Amino acid sequence: MTKKIGFLGLGHMGAPMAANLVEAGYDVLAFDPVPAAQEQARADGATVVATAAEAAVGRDVVITMLPNGKLVLDVYAELLPAAAPGTLFIDSSTIDVADAKAAAALAVSAGHRPLDAPVSGGVAGATAGTLTFMVGGAEDDFADAAEILNVLGGKVVHCGGAGVGQAAKICNNMLLGISMIGLSEALVLGERLGLSHQSFFDVVSTASGQSWALTSYCPVPGPVPASPANNDYQPGFATALMSKDLTLAANALRANGIDGRLGELAAAIYQQFNQTDTGKDFSAIITAIRDRSE
Ligand code: NAD
To answer: Which NCBIfam families does this entry report, sorted A to Z (predicted)?
Structure first.
């Protein structure tokens, strides 16, 4: 068993992930600049260090769970020279495919073994250790990371080479954003036409318009009792994060010359909603569609 882990980024996702690694018997050196995050990590049994670089010293594996690609690249500039050659670097942040490839190239040229391993499953999945990991990188490095990723996740998929884990993440979330908007427009149209939410659900959940957004995450209260709509749209998956992921997807569409009009539009719709939204779940987009309708 690989024992020594460095963990950077102890936020909503990183804190419970680091705690699960400690719980599973790993020796975790943790770093986050925020004092409250440091305190929580200490309480969870990690050893908190004073700088990012210290979290990489003498580690077999270094995991990052950071807000964006620029930070990942900045932090890698500190971590890579501090780590022993051959250290496995696992970045689980959701970042641009180009940034993921750049981070991987830097790690390789410093003599390390990089994987991009973004997740889905949210804070609940991070806490329960049931995240889905989408992994990009070399086959051997993936095999060496599998034990740790299986502590943190319920499903671990090797998607391809460097950056391809991030590609899977943005493709999935682009589709989810588009389907939530489409579903919400259909629900609001149904409201106008006298179709109750329950009747809509009863028909569409087993018809050809069925989607995960409807059957697991229904954006109106009632049909799916656990969905955020039943709890005044408390996240869940915050609008700000969906907006970020759709922006990454739209950038990738453009960078690769794809005619991705729905992806572009979904990014624009969520960017606009994110400017007015006050921390609501992304399924609250239905309230904006209703408000904008005559
Ligand atoms: P968060 O903002 O709660 O946590 C990020 C943490 O990184 C913060 O505690 C911050 O202080 C820390 N940080 C900033 N600079 C640092 C540095 N130089 N060194 C070490 N730590 C530093 O974000 P989160 O919700 O935990 O999300 C983390 C990543 O996971 C993001 O890329 C996000 O898109 C992705 N993600 C989040 C969710 C979710 O539901 N929250 C789901 C899937 C993926």
So the answer is: HIBADH (TIGR01692)
